[in-house]
Design brief:
By secondary structure, this protein is of the alpha+beta class. The protein is built from two helices and four strands, in the order αββαββ. The chain has a four-stranded mixed sheet. The longest helix has 14 residues.
């Protein structure tokens, strides 16, 4: 699969901000990196396959 340049930039930014752990689970509406609840819109976007970044810690959220 092709990785878009914007995706790599977001990954590198998240990795730089979060200290190497750039992608974390989004479980039960919470970021598993910082345990902060995310908005319903962010949860829906993640469930639809869009890239969502936690507003609190800056990590990329992956729904599980």
């Amino acid at each position: 699969p092709l990785i878009l340049p914007g995706t790599m930039i977001a990954f590198e930014d998240a990795k730089r901000r979060a200290g190497e752990v750039a992608v974390v689970a989004l479980k039960n509406g919470r970021c598993r990196g910082c345990l902060v609840s995310v908005s319903a819109n962010q949860r829906k976007a993640a469930d639809e396959g869009q890239m969502v970044i936690c507003d609190s810690c800056g990590r990329i959220l992956c729904p599980v």
